[in-house]
């Protein structure tokens, strides 16, 4: 099993890179484990407090469960991946059954910040993008998918997203084996990553 970590700031184009990689390989050969599925369950906290949680801080992720699940997949076991809701900021009751595959893509903003998870990644990728471009994508996504107002998105960006990016995400770039500048628009960078995965397979 080949484990590929795809990190990068919020709105950098990680999902686009993941989707383009998945298009190349047959369905049963590649699975995606999103870091977002492993945000801690905050059901014990009032909704108002939940909405103030900094999801760009490493403490917001249940790393132990994520690394346990990765170990199980590597040993050939099936896992029940959590489902996280951005609207309620809690874990849903249902889970997603994920079977082992030849390639596992672990995708998320903070995945290169955790030493144990980092040690389990065969290839570490950082999707890099201009801060203004990222902010534009974040505004668009959070309004459409997460029901936030422009003011709320900008407030959150300045209060937590930007400071956490500079403190945790940007410094984790030094652990990357491959840096893809320009995010999902960088076709050459994505093709390099695909060819490396093909070579490993």
Protein described:
With 201 residues, the chain is α/β, with parallel strands linked by helices. It has helices spanning 14-24, 47-50, 63-74, 115-119, 131-146, 150-169, 187-200, and strands at residues 2-8, 30-34, 79-85, 90-98, 103-107, 123-128, 178-181. The chain has seven helices and seven strands; from the N terminus they run βαβααβββαβααβα. Helix 1 (14-24) packs across helix 7 and helix 5 (131-146) packs across helix 6. The protein is globular, with a radius of gyration of 16 Å.
Mean pLDDT: 90
User: CATH fold name, please?
Assistant: Rossmann fold
**CATH-assigned homologous superfamily:** P-loop containing nucleotide triphosphate hydrolases
Q: Strand order within the widest sheet?
A: 2-5-1-6-7
The oligomeric state is single chain
Which structural class fits the helix and strand makeup?
alpha/beta
Q: What's the end-to-end separation, in Å?
A: 9 Å
Radius of gyration over C-alpha positions, nearest whole angstrom = 16 Å
What is the beta-strand fraction? 15-25%
Count of helical stretches: 7
Helix content: 40-55%
- Overall geometry: globular
Count of extended strands: 7
Helices and strands, in order, run as: EHEHHEEEHEHHEH
Under CATH at level 1, the class stands as: Alpha Beta
Return residue spans where pLDDT drops below 50 for at least 5 consecutive residues: none
CATH architecture level-2 label: 3-Layer(aba) Sandwich
Biggest sheet record: 5 strands, parallel
């Amino acid at each position: 099993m080949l484990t590929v970590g795809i990190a990068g700031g919020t709105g950098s184009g990680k999902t686009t890179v993941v989707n383009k990689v998945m298009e190349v390989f047959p369905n049963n050969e590649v699975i995606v484990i999103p870091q977002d599925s492993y945000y801690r369950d905050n059901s014990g906290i009032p909704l108002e407090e939940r909405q103030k949680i900094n999801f760009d801080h490493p403490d917001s992720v249940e790393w132990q469960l994520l690394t346990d699940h990765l170990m199980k997949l590597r040993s050939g076991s099936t896992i029940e991946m959590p489902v996280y809701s951005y609207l309620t900021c809690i874990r849903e009751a249902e889970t997603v059954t994920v079977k082992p595959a030849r390639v596992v893509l672990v995708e998320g903003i903070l995945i290169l910040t955790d030493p144990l998870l980092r040690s389990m990644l065969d290839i570490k990728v950082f999707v890099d993008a201009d801060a203004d471009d990222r902010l534009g994508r974040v505004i668009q996504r959070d309004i459409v998918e997460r029901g936030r107002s422009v003011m709320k998105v900008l407030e959150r960006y300045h209060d937590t997203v930007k400071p956490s990016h500079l403190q945790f995400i940007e410094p984790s770039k030094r652990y990357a084996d491959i840096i893809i500048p320009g995010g999902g628009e960088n076709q050459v960078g994505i093709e390099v990553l695909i060819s490396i995965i093909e070579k490993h397979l």
